[in-house]
């Protein structure tokens, strides 16, 4: 486990979606976060006290979490300098970027000299196997999306907690850096060699006989040219009984691809169900979850009603509305 409390890193970020790891920790593990570190040119906040590296250490932070995501997952000179300052102040450093902290010689040497640790969250297990698609026991739900970064992790955690509140056994199965930092375990599926993606998810969600649910965090989108491969492997490995579609209704284009429109929800549902049927012939859609954080409050309910009418499925914001209609669909 990564030592808490955390100081959450925002750095020079200006993209709200790019700080999703820090934001996720602030939302789902607030008791373990002492503050946020950001430079003067960063206009964003996760709602925690702003602190310098030294102030974070003085407040008791044991780990600086580099809770940002960028294209390619690389560390620039500024980020390395900030990680160095954290080590100098006596903090461990954790990151979920594709470039590993341990592969930066200066950081590795300083951590060893200080007796501190570098945590590379995007390290897949070493014993992965190729998926088979053979039936296994248990009930599994997978979140999917019209795009990446539309709220799949938030929805997955919210669904897990809602099931648990009903007294139903349920486990959140993390597949991305943020989810793994929140849960303390999981498989960073976008760092897995392609041949092993479905097998990694089979290992993450082995058969279970308690009638409980593995609620699996989705990644990417079948309609995103950059990340559809990861989404496909997840659909095959999950062998899901149910899927929930996640969507950001105010997003104008696919993330990182200006001018490329998001698919329609009905179209995206149909594509995901078709791909999922390779390993789960009876998979079904049970709901749509919206990220309404950028919407006017009075527009949310009418939009949910319209999408429900269009899809024939319950549609809610999982963070502000009851998930009971979706849970009822699971029992139908």
From TrEMBL:
<dbReference type="InterPro" id="IPR027417">
    <property type="entry name" value="P-loop_NTPase"/>
</dbReference>
<protein>
    <submittedName>
        <fullName>N-acetyltransferase DgcN</fullName>
    </submittedName>
</protein>
<feature type="domain" description="D-glutamate N-acetyltransferase-like N-terminal">
    <location>
        <begin position="46"/>
        <end position="124"/>
    </location>
</feature>
<dbReference type="InterPro" id="IPR035402">
    <property type="entry name" value="DgcN-like_N"/>
</dbReference>
<dbReference type="InterPro" id="IPR035086">
    <property type="entry name" value="DgcN-like_C"/>
</dbReference>
<dbReference type="Pfam" id="PF07755">
    <property type="entry name" value="DUF1611"/>
</dbReference>
<dbReference type="InterPro" id="IPR011669">
    <property type="entry name" value="DgcN-like"/>
</dbReference>
<feature type="domain" description="D-glutamate N-acetyltransferase-like C-terminal">
    <location>
        <begin position="132"/>
        <end position="327"/>
    </location>
</feature>
<dbReference type="Pfam" id="PF17396">
    <property type="entry name" value="DUF1611_N"/>
</dbReference>
């Amino acid at each position: 486990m990564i030592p808490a409390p955390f100081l959450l890193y925002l750095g020079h970020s200006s993209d709200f979606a790019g700080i999703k790891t820090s934001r996720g920790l602030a939302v789902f593990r607030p008791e373990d976060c002492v503050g946020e570190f950001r430079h003067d040119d960063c206009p964003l906040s996760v709602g925690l006290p702003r602190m310098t590296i030294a102030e974070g250490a003085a407040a008791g932070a044991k780990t600086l979490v580099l809770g940002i995501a960028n294209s390619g997952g690389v560390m620039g000179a500024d980020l390395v300098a900030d990680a160095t300052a954290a080590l100098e102040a006596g903090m461990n450093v954790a990151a979920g970027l594709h470039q590993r902290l341990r592969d930066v010689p200066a950081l590795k040497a300083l951590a060893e000299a200080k007796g501190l640790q570098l945590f590379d969250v995007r390290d897949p297990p070493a014993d992965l196997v190729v998926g088979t698609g053979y039936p296994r026991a248990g009930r599994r739900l997978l979140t999917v999306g019209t795009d990446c970064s539309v709220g799949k992790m938030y929805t997955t955690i919210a669904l897990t907690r809602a099931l648990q509140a009903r007294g139903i056994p349920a486990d959140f199965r993390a597949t991305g850096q943020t989810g793994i930092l929140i849960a303390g375990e999981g498989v960073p599926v976008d760092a897995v060699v392609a041949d092993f993606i479905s097998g990694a998810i089979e290992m993450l969600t082995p058969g279970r006989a308690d009638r409980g649910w593995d609620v699996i965090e989705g990644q990417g989108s079948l309609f995103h040219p950059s990340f559809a491969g990861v989404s496909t492997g997840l659909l095959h490995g999950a062998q899901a009984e149910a899927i929930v579609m996640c969507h950001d209704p105010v997003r104008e284009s696919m993330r990182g691809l200006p001018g490329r429109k998001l698919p329609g929800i009905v179209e995206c549902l149909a594509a995901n169900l078709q791909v999922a049927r390779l390993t789960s012939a009876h998979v079904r859609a049970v709901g749509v979850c919206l990220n309404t954080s950028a919407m006017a409050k009075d527009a949310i309910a009418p939009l949910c009603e319209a999408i429900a009418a269009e899809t024939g499925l319950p549609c809610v914001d999982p963070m502000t509305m009851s998930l009971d209609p979706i849970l009822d669909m699971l029992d139908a």
